[in-house]
Each structure stands twice: as C-alpha cells, then as structure tokens.
Fold this sequence. Notes:
2 domains; Rossmann fold; six-stranded parallel sheet
Amino acid sequence: MRILYVATDQTVPGTKGGSIHVAAVARGLVALGHEVHALVTAGPGGVPQHDGVHWHVLAPPLGARQLRFALTAAVSVLASRVLPDVVMERYYNFGGEGMRAARTRGVPYVLEVNAPIIDYPGSPKRTLDRALLIEPMRRWRDRQCAAAALVITPSATIVPASIPPERLLEVEWGADTQAFHPGAAGPVPFERRAEAMTVVFAGAFRSWHGAVHLVRAIRTLRARGRTDVDAVLIGDGPELAAVREAATGIDGITFTGALPHPRVPACLAAADVGAAPFDIGAHAPLALAFYWSPLKIFEYMASGLPVVAPDLPRLRQIVRHRADGLLYDAAEPDALATALEALADNPDARRAMGRAAREHAVRDFGWDGHCRTLDEALRRCVS
Length: 383
C-alpha cells in the first residue's frame, strides 16, 4: 500500500513526543511492507536517510503551525505525483491539507488525533469560536472528522462523540523495544553513585509534566535523612529554569539538558526507576480526562525500569500497581517521596517490577505492535 502521511508541523528528527511518534509510525509501516511518503519539517541535519521512508520536507510558512493550511496546494501536487492509496493526516486545528488531497485523489482519508479536538470547560478557543458566531473552528473540525474513514486516537475522550465506533481506532503509543532495553549502551551524561538509587525523568519540561514534583520529592527525602536516592532530569522546555531553581541546594540532582533521542536508551538503562509525576491540575485540557499515551512511561518500561506515577484511572490501564511500578495518590503532598523511598528500601522488589515492566512493554506497548494494529485498520479502509 502507498501511504501519504501528512505531518508537516512535526520536526523529524526531533526530541518531542510528536516527532518520535511520526518517525516511529512511518518506519513501522515501512517495515510491514508499505511505501510511506511522510511530509514533515526537517530537524537538525535534515530528515533521516536510508530508513526506507520517503521523507518530504514541507514546513509551514515561517515555521508557524497556524499557517499549515497554506500548504494545501503543495500537498495536493505531491499527492498527484505519489498517487497514494490512502492519506493519513496528523490533526491540527489549522490543518486539513491532507483531507483536501485525499478528496482530490478519491482515496480514503485517515485522521490521527493525539490531543483534544473537543473543547474543555473554559477553553479560550471555544470562547473565540462562539464570538465569531458561525463557529468556524468547530465546523472545520467536524468537517475533518466527518471526512475521515478512520480516526486514530489513544483515547475516545478527546474526539467528538458523533464519530461512529466502527470509524474509531483506539491504540496506545509505544516504545522501540529493541532500542530501549535494560542493556542499552552508549555515552551517559551523568555519573551515578553505586550506593544510591537513581531516578530518571525524561520530558519536555512543561508544567503538567510535573518535573518539579520529582525535585521536591528529593528535597523531602533529604529532610528525612535519605541520601541514597538521586535524580537525573533529561530534557528542556519552558519549566526547566523553574525546576532548576527548585533544585537549588539539593545534592544528587543532575540536569542533562535535551538529548538526541537515540542517546536516551542508554540513559534510561543506567537508571533504576522512571518517574512520571504528571500534574493534571496544571493543564486545563486534562479536565476532559488524562488522554495522553505517555511515551516516557512506555520507554521506562521497555528499559526495565519500574514506573512511579500518579494513581489515575488511565495510568492504571498501563502501569500495574506493585507489578510494573508504584502508583501514588497525588493529593498526598509527600506521596511521591514515600513511593521512591519504598523502592529504595526494597531493591529486589524494585528489580522484579522492572523485569515485569519490560515484559509488559514488549508484549503490549511496542511501536511494532502499534503499527501492526494500524496496518490492519488501514487495509480495511482501502479494501
């Protein structure tokens, strides 16, 4: 099958979840025998070479995602050359260029939805849309959803209820379980103390990622006299400066900055525990539900790390409490510190959880499995 994958506002290669997702899906579909033409923004050094994907650089004008729709004509021209059997588009409010190309070619249109396209209570976008009277953004969203032969999402809570179940595919993101494993080797930009448990956080340092809660947990442990738990925080983002400030005066905390994604497996393999201290109160759209398919958790599990995360209904579907890690009550101020302390006190149980997490990830949360599920759904669309 020839697939045109429209993700023009995503940077490949990149370090953010969207970039990693697009690259993993494109390569995974190629591995299953498809010819994939992916439209992306080029990352540092240009798009990947020799991975089997036909990467086409087609960035939004001025690098502004809000101008993505201006690429409609260029996408349609490319589609006329590629002659796809199906067009798959990564949803964005100001997108839809893939929908137009699919309609022009008369082929099925598939929509990937990874963040809410319905409006949460108090949404500024919803307020603006209503002020415009004809609600152009809602109408455009509904038009894209109605045109889609298939809507792919990690959670049905973030798409309109009007989408029939037979046109909806719920599927988790995943991890490259061959790259992320307990023996992953490579340069590691931190030193670990043999006598200390190393807790790793990897993310984009946005407020709802909760990195500051890990720093505060280490401070709490130090106040309890626990000097045997250290933390490594990998990544960059808008909250990094504030998190660094919160870490002032606490020993045993290392910030690596952003790392190319291929370097992350070795860093996780050099740690003992993976922390995902999400703060749902810091991100208004999460009032709808915890809709993420958390890349960091899948990569921790694939690396053989027990996961420590808030006890949320959706996360219970991914992390089995006391089997793959520990889920804590985020309403309790010191619950994260207490969970980390419990793992530091029980290294045998910690390692057993890590092994179970690895097995769980390989069985259920690999990108290969994600792409096999996607492959079956795409074949049904074009049959």
